[in-house]
What does this fold into?
Amino acid sequence: MADPVIRTGHINLFAQSDVTCYIIRGAEGDLLVDTGFYMNRRALLQWLSVYSVKWIFLTHAHPDHDWNAAAVAQKTGAKILLHEADSTLIRNFKSQPVHPTADRWRLRNLTQNFGGALVKSPPYKPDILFGDADGGLLKQYGFDAEIVHLPGHTRGSSGILCGDVLYCGDAFTAIFGGPDITPHAADIPQMTASLRKILEIRPKWLACGHGFPVKLRDAEPVIRAYLQEHAHEI
Ligand SMILES: [Zn+2]
It folds into this structure.
């Protein structure tokens, strides 16, 4: 397995095998955004040893994001946060639809559907299931940050807006080396509405669940082209 890329500074990130996790530093402890997949476990835990992780924020309950939630919680005592609309998605990939977001992803989507049903993250139970009224929840924990519901990729998909960065999970992606539309979604109209929401929020950076953070100015043309192309379906 390739060594992880670990950067600190403006955006604290851990990237390995197409998976990217982030740390948001807080006054009372740190928050981990997503936990990676099975192959990331060891390196992720090592990376986290220099932080004081008190909260684990899952952008959604897909296995490449929640696989290590149990391990990190066990090692750090951190509390796991997940949107309530994804609570039944845990270890149950097929409980929400998996539609390709564009024709070019139809074939890939077949393998996602097949593979997704086979993998199940180690069991965990979120300590906090937040809902749409809980946007300000992180302020209670010492973060100058806001939870933003970005449904579509999954029904509970959520991000965190902190400073000029929107940690957006799979609401948008950089998995292919540059800004792109995430290949599959539970609900495409919801996903496009979330893309519009991202443009309204106008963060400087999108810190995606895969690939390196991208600037909104580079993502915006990709988002606008997709919205235009799919306008008739929305
Ligand atoms: Zn996902």
Observations:
- Residues 188-201 form the longest helix (14 residues).
- The mean pLDDT is 94.
- DSSP finds six helices and 14 strands in the chain.
